[in-house]
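Q: Convert this sequence to structure tokens.
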Amino acid sequence: MKSRKLEKNVWIRWGLVIAGLLFLIFVLNQVVQVACSQLDQERMADRSSWIQSITVHDGSLDLAHAREGLTAYAQKLPVKIAIYDRDRHVLYSSKNQSREALSSNQSNVFYETANSSVYITPLKADRQIIGYLRLESSKTVVVGLGLLYFFFFVLGLGLLFYRDYLVRSYDVPIRFAARMAENILDGSYHLTASDSVKRESVLRLNLAMNRLSETLHEINRSYSSQRDSMTTLIENIGNGLLFIDGNGRIDYVNKTFKEDFKTAASHWELADYQEVIPYDEVKEMIDEAFQSKKRLKKQLQLTVHIERKHFDVSCAPILDHHKKVKGIVVVFHDITEIKKLENMRKDFVANVSHELKTPITSLIGFTETLLDGAKDDKQLETQFLNIILHEGRRLQNLIKDLLDLSKIEREHFTIQWQKVSLSKLLDAALLIFKEKADGKKIAIDRLPGDEGWALGDPYRIRQIMINLITNAISYTPEQGRIVLSVKETADKSKFIISDNGIGIEKEQIPRIFERFYRVDKARSRDSGGTGLGLAIVKHLVEVHEGSIDVKSEPGKGTTFTISFKKTRPPIG
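A:
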């Protein structure tokens, strides 16, 4: 289609050029003809002046002595001469011309016929017309004019041919160079310009385009390699990174940041950091870095979902040569585990000692009382032995939970992956709580719902459920209510437990999964709790690659939602 259009344009251009050449030749010929006619008219006027000088004497025509001279003059030029009297009758005519009278409308005129020029003018004496003169001679013809026109036409066509040849000789390589440049801009470097053309200028252009393509290709490969290396480094550096431009908009969020803060951050890029970053302390650091143009570093404790994490936060401004801030790099180094280890080293002995102190003190105290003679009172002995048994079991549970938590936290700890039904595991777990719930007059409502097929270890998932139900019973007052359900979504199977107990303050929610942390220490200790149940739940959920969501309102109750990976039910 494009070739046909180009061919049509060529024919139109050639047609216009030929028409233009023919028109130019026509105009030139008309100019030559007008010039020749003007020359003939001037020559006739000169001749008529000479003839009048020899034929007019004393105010009248005198042809007696002029005939021979006129005849000789007519033969010499050659020219046809005719002289008429006042009444337009012929008085003299050379070469035996017609003796017809001169018509009345022919006076002082010049006209041309096919091959001759005719000039008629009155002869005057004392401003009176005494006769008329008619001259006729061959038209002036420029010899070789047609050949000149032919050569002019051929020359015009030749110039057009040459022009098209030059255009083609430069147009094709220039078009190729343009296409090559477009491909280079699009990242394609497969085109190579010819290095065997004859024209030096075109050869230089082709060689320059080839060198440009090779150089840009090499630069692009180097840039791509460096970019991939930098992207890999930034994504896997182990620290969360935020890049903020000079206008306060977030340019980049790396994978580690998204993982550390458990967010997709899909709406963060190109957004104002003041609007999307949820931590006032971080925003204040960024503001200060913009203003001071100095690197800042602080340790911050930030709440991430249901956890409290510790970060070394560093804000480094990027300055141009005018010392103007072009952007800010914010680095988040997660030191939560380090802090936990520090706290564990500091608090473990204190916490364990504190938790062991009460049951051991009770055991020693009541044993000493029995040894001092209380054993003789059977009723008192039984009461003290029951207390000793209770404290012993409490001590046993504490040691069991400590060992269980230690086992779960080991690196080589694994679970037995199976397809499990959350509904069946929940129904089995509820059997052991009937007596305890009835003792506190707590209603446990098991709502009907989905089967909840999930991937996991049935023993460990049952342990999660038991710990959460135990926790709910412990923190729900008498006449309270606990609601249990199982639900399925597109990719998750969820176990949900709600109570109308004492609830949890918002700022305490991230801490409830810490070891030995209790919302209400007296109530928990009275119920025999060890303070390790939710810490075990958290670790087991993480091992199952699941998630925990907690919603609570003081005085109204708490809802735990545990999400597991959904799977299809087993066949058969």
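The longest strand covers residues 307-319.
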